[in-house]
Amino acid sequence: MTKLLQWLGSLALLGGIWAALMLDLVGLHAFSPSWYQVLWALPTYLLVTLGCYSLGVVGYRLATFNDCQAASLELQAQIREARADLARRGMKF
Amino acid sequence: MASAARKYSVLLPTYNERENLPLVVWLPVRSFEESGNEFEIIIIDDGSPDGTQEVAEQLIKIYGSDKILLRPRAKKLGLGTAYIHGMKHATGNFIIIMDADLSHHPKFIPEFIKTQKEGSFDIVSGTRYKGNGGVHGWDLKRKLISRGANFLTQVLLRPGASDLTGSFRLYRKEVLQKLMEKCVSKGYVFQMEMIVRARQLGYSIGEVPISFVDRVYGESKLGGNEIVSFLKGLLTLFATT
Ligand SMILES: Nc1nc2c(ncn2[C@@H]2O[C@H](COP(=O)(O)OP(=O)(O)OP(=O)(O)O)[C@@H](O)[C@H]2O)c(=O)[nH]1
Ligand SMILES: [Mg+2]
């Protein structure tokens, strides 16, 4: 099964449950009107939460992205070392 | 275990890397000689006009034609086919793929080898996004795009590897051969597809954190609509795998 189908499947399942609750297909009749208001807004809440979570994760990872200054300096030194050694062995640059 | 001797073939695709090539060869040769591992370095040059091949010839004189192999092609035919071409000439049972622009530091090769041995992995992938991995020489915008693209990839594909667009990897030769047959995309997406297909085929993947230092010499060959083609490729993999 492709990743797309997995996503569509999960969404359909969640959407189905949500619709069933909203339309009270299960026939529970146990919920107060204020419960339906919450339920009605639930998908939007979820979307916003997911969006914020994503932004947070990307922002955090951006802020903690290692800057390998030391690796760059080490490389510069090694470039000089390599050039000297190769020149000694007859390399013409 | 009476395992056959290990030999590592390093594939170096080059296009106008005259300045970088001597260093990209010198560094791994030194570390291979220190470790005593058997190796060969295969340079796949696509008719670079800057004299890359002349530099390669000099390196062959210095190190010997059994260690350094030049397997050029007449014109610039792209990275994917360069790997296939190089692999045809490889005699090692492990293949290391890296860029020849010094952004992939050869000092990580011993770590790749160690990780592969420890986990008996089919693939070991360098990662900029884990542990001590990282980048140098990128501005904030490029870092943001990189992080954002990586997050999106992780969410959509759940690949079980943290760096899909990197191209510093070690493969068992037969695994790379199999993957090359299966993968059809180009550019960054090609590297992503390799990992996704590897998972589908049940290959194991180890990871080594690497520092990616932006190229010092020469010019970038990718560019243009990188982001658009990345997104297209990502969605294609999302819908088809
Ligand atoms: N043989 C061959 N090598 C290529 C070709 N295109 C790129 N390369 C090499 O592939 C490696 C990666 O290419 P780069 O231009 O560094 O691409 P990149 O790493 O995505 O971009 P930057 O590092 O940001 O410049 C380098 O060693 C290039 O010389 C090609 O068409 N043929
Ligand atoms: Mg590069």
UniProtKB/TrEMBL annotation, chain A:
GO terms for cellular component: dolichol-phosphate-mannose synthase complex; endoplasmic reticulum membrane. InterPro entries: DPM3. It comes from Python bivittatus (Burmese python). It is a multi-pass membrane protein. Pfam families: DPM3. GO terms for molecular function: glycosyltransferase activity. Belongs to the DPM3 family. It comes from the Eukaryota. Stabilizer subunit of the dolichol-phosphate mannose (DPM) synthase complex; tethers catalytic subunit to the ER. This is Dolichol-phosphate mannosyltransferase subunit 3. Pathway: Protein modification; protein glycosylation.
TrEMBL record, chain B:
It is an enzyme of class 2 (transferase). It is found in: Endoplasmic reticulum. One of its GO terms (biological process) is GPI anchor biosynthetic process. CDD domains: DPM1_like (cd06442). It comes from the Eukaryota. Its cofactor is Mn(2+); Mg(2+); Ca(2+). Keywords: Endoplasmic reticulum, Glycosyltransferase, Magnesium, Manganese, Metal-binding, Transferase. InterPro entries: DPM1-like, Glyco_trans_2-like, Nucleotide-diphossugar_trans. Its main location: endoplasmic reticulum. The keyword Glycosyltransferase applies. It catalyses: a di-trans,poly-cis-dolichyl phosphate + GDP-alpha-D-mannose = a di-trans,poly-cis-dolichyl beta-D-mannosyl phosphate + GDP. Its EC number is 2.4.1.83. Component of the dolichol-phosphate mannose (DPM) synthase complex. Belongs to the glycosyltransferase 2 family. This is Dolichol-phosphate mannosyltransferase subunit 1. It comes from Python bivittatus (Burmese python).
